[in-house]
Amino acid sequence: MNFDFIEDYKNVIGKIFFIISIIFLLYLFFNPAMGCFFNIDEQFTLAILNLPFAEAWKLIVNDVHPPLYYMILMAFKGLFNTLHVSVDMLYLTKLLSLLPFVFLMFISFIKIKGEYGWLACGVFMFGITTMSNIGEIFITGRMYSWSVLFMVLAFISYMDVLKSSSTKSWILLTLFSVLCLYTHYIMVFPLFIMYLAYFLYINYNDKLDKKSEKRKAIASIIVSILCYIPWIFTLIQQVSAINRTYVHTAKLSGDLLVNYLTCFVLQDTRQLLDLVFWKFLVFVLLILIIAAFISEIKNFKNHEAFAIFSGINIYILTILIASFFVTFIFKGITVRYFVAVIAVIWLTIAILLSKIKNYKILLVALILILALGVHGINTTVNDINYHNELGLEQNDVINDINKADNIVIYNGTYNTYHFLLNNTEEYSLREYNGAHGPSFIVEEDLDAIMDDHPDRNVYLVSVLYNVNDNDVKINDNITASKLSQQGRTYIMKLNKIATTDENGTESTSENATI
Fold first, then answer.
1. Which of 278, 280, 281, 339 is buried most deeply by CB count within 10 Å?
2. Residue 275, Cβ neighbours under 10 Å: how many?
3. Quick one: 185 and 40 in the same domain?
C-alpha cells in the first residue's frame, strides 16, 4: 500500500494537534485548580510570597532550589503592588506557571513552524501538552514549567549553534543555560550532556574550524560558571543541609528505570505491570523513533542529524545519570524533575517526524502519539479533578479551623501552613530554624497541650506514612480524625482517649509524646 498521501496531510495533522493544545490551555486556564493547592510545595511557594523580601530571601536560601523562580514571582508581586492592583497570591503563582506554556506556544508557532513546518509545531505542542501529566505541572505553583521554557530555548539555541555557530546563537545558548541552572539544579545534567555532545560534533564535522569552535564552547562554559559563582556558596550550604536532614532510603530498581525512561509519555510511577500495555506502546514509539532516525540519517543535513541525535541522548542519558546520582547521593528522584528533558525529546521527535520520508513509519508514529495523547489527556483530567477535590476540601477545613478559639499544632509544617492558619493559637512540637520569627509556642509534649486546653478544639498538622484509616492513634492517650490531606500532610482533629481508674472515675495518661 502506498502511504505517500501522508505528505499532503502533514500540515492538516499538525494544525489539528496544535488546536488541541490551545483547547487544553484554555481548559487549564479556566479550571478550578487555578484556585486550590495541588501539593504542599505550592504552600511553601505562597508562604514565601506572603513574607517581606528580606525574610523571604532568608527562607529561599534555606530551601533546596535555586532562586530564579521565586524572584520571578516576587517581581510580579511587586509590579501588581506598584500598580495598586489587588490579586490573589495563589492565583498569581498558578498564572505564572501557566505563562511559560503560552510562551512555548508562540515559540512553536513562530520558530518551530517557521523552520520545520506545521507537523513539527503541532506534534511538539501536543506532546508537551497531553503527555506525562505535564498539563498538571503547568498549573502547579512551582518552578518546573519555567525549567521547560528555558531548556527548550537552550536546545533551540543549541540547534542554531549546530547550524551556523553565530555569535548570537552562542550568546543565547549561554544565557538560557544560566537561566536553566538558576531554575532547577537537575538542569546541570542535560546541559552537561548537550555541551559534551557539541565537542563530539566538533570532532565529527571536518568542515568546522575545530580550534575556533572549541574556544567558543569553552568560553560559553566559563561565562556560565562565572554567572553562577554568586550562588555557589549557597548551593554548597543547601547540599550540606540535605545530607544532614534527608534519610537516604531510596532504591533504584528495573521497574523504576522503565518508569523513568517512559516518562516522556507516562508520568505514572506505579509498578510496571499496572500499566504494562501503555508502557509497551511507549517503548514501541521510542524504538520506532530511533529506528526511523537510523534508517533515514543519510537524508538529513549534518546539523539536523546531530540535533536529533543530541535530543535523544539528552533525554536518555539525563534520566540514567541523574537517577543514579540523585538517588544515591541525595534522595529518590521524581518524574517532575525530568519535565524539561521530556520537552526536549518531544521537540526532537517532532523535528524527526517532520523530516522522514518513510510514510509508513510516520503514520504508525502519529497513530501511536494520538492514542497515547488521548490516554494522557484522560489521566491528566482525572488527576486534576482529584487534586481539585482534595484542595477544595482542605480550603473548607482551613476556613473552618482558622479561628482564634482553636489550637493548631505544627509538626514540622509551620512554614507551609502558618499563613493559612494565622488566626489560631499556634504550637509546635519542635524548634523552628527558619528566618521568619515564629508565632507559636514550642511544646514537645502533645498531651500537655491538650491538658492545658480541655475545652478547646485542638488540631494537628503533620506528615503521616502508611496510614489508611480515617482515625489515627497518635499515642496511648490521643487519637486523631483526618479532616483533609495534601500529599502525605494531614490536618487532623485531636481527641483525648478517656480511661477509667480503679475507683471508676475517668482519668488521662500523661507524658506521652509523638
1. 339
2. 20
3. yes
* 8 falls within a domain: yes
Q: Does 140 share its domain with 34?
A: yes
Rounded to whole angstroms, the Cα distance separating 429 from 406 reads 17
pLDDT tens column, 447-475: 899 989 889 999 999 988 766 767 888 88
Across 355-473, the runs of DSSP E, i.e. the strands, are 407-410, 425-428, 441-442, 458-463, 471-473
C-alpha cell at 154: 537552550
Can you list the alpha helix ranges (DSSP code H) found in 165-253?
A: 167-181, 188-204, 210-245
**Domain span including residue 466:** 403-507
Q: What are phi and psi of 198, to 5 degrees?
A: -65, -35
Kindly give the parts of the chain with pLDDT less than 70: 1-3, 242-253, 268-275, 327-332, 432-438, 466-467, 469, 498-514
In this prediction, residue 107 carries a pLDDT of 96
Report in angstroms the alpha-carbon separations of 275 from 241, 268, 370, 375, 382.
37, 8, 18, 12, 16
What is the 3-class SS of 439-475, one letter each residue? CCEECCCHHHHHHHCCCCCEEEEEECCCCCCCEEECC
Give the type of residue at 421: L
Question: Does any domain span residue 514?
Answer: no
